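User: quick one, fold this
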Amino acid sequence: MADTESKTPDPLPWLEEMPPRQIVGELDRYIVGQSAAKRAVAIAIRNRWRRMQAPENIRDEITPYNIIMIGPTGVGKTEVARRLARLAGAPFLKVEASKFTEVGYVGRDVESMIRELVDVAITMVRTEREDDLWPQAEEKAEARLLDLLLPAAPAGPGAKGQGSEEDPEAARREKARAKLQKDLKEGKLDDREVEVELSPQNFPMPEWNQPPEGSQDPGFSMGEWLQGIIPKQKKRRTVKIPDARRILVDEELRRMVDMDDVVNEALDRSENHGIVFVDEIDKIAGERSTTGPDISREGVQRDLLPIVEGSTVQTRYGYIRTDHILFIAAGAFHVSKPSDLIPELQGRFPIRVELTPLTEEDFVRIMTEPESALTKQYQALVAAEGSTLEFTADGVKEIARVAFVANDKMENIGARRLHTVMSTLMEEILFELPEGGKRTITLDAAAVTEKLKSVVENDDLRRYIL
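Assistant:
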């Protein structure tokens, strides 16, 4: 037992250092099935670690194994990439390819995805640094709180102790401060108010006042320049102790975190470990045409090509190379097919993985096996009211059956259908739960059938509710 307890808190190694089989095992904890997709991304991730071990003269020549995932909606394409990034601790960005159509009208500059990836990396690294410095920031904030609660005595002649004799006033203040510190830690002073001085925050410039994307000089920020010439006026607020503690901790963290170090680490992490997930890539593929929106679709592909091939993108934090960013694209490809993409772009996504549609048995596994399964989520919600929610095996099978039938008779939205079925099933229970008192709610097949019968039997209701 002791061995088990000692092993539990051990942190996982950096994901890229794991063998592919272990990466797949980590993904299995959250995602049911789709072993081909998991194997493909596991190999792609491990290859990044292998590249870093290669000799320097060949390291830059090893390009990432970009992946296209093909499959209907709701089968886990996005979830595989999202969980992978969360496990890796890597900067991860999800974008929709359709956002980049008709640039200059309603679309966006394709390079903006790399700028957003860097922003994600900056936030990630800064948060890590703040977590490391949090204990020291709390200590400093507590010391400042004590200074506010017990201001220092005004210095005057004879304030210091005479010779070796102890100053009784200083000893009394030290004792009072120790008592205050003890009460502060125990929360006995939470109702007291103190006046704190707030430093102005460096908010980003309004969007209408920003230079066009790609035109800004990375060494110059208009916002920082304006904030540098405008005098910083501090304001004072009277707040309760818990709010004052939060304000002072935030202020200390801003002072302690070296943003230059954060930016350098974030740029390096974006270049070598960043993952960009391009969803709905099938929306920019299609038959070649000389008129209509197909021109903008092919234009987006051509704009996307240099980013995926490897180019240098200008961001407000500096220049970043995209040569070794991992791109994972996904699409249903109902109307088009991957071969409808321009040949150059196809060549930059050498790995193609087809995700299989979900079966009724998959739905049962999705509701029971993952660590954050839907049934466990609803059990946690019900437990918040002091009650207990239990699902029997036949109850789970009935929910899976209803979801599978709804997908079959209407639009197939994959595992997302489970959310709509469960929300319909649980609506009355969650509404009445606070007034019902503490109790145990059991959902077996009969209870599920009874609660969903009016919806399942009514085609019109089923269409709008399920």
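User: anything notable?
Assistant: The two ends are 46 Å apart (CA to CA).
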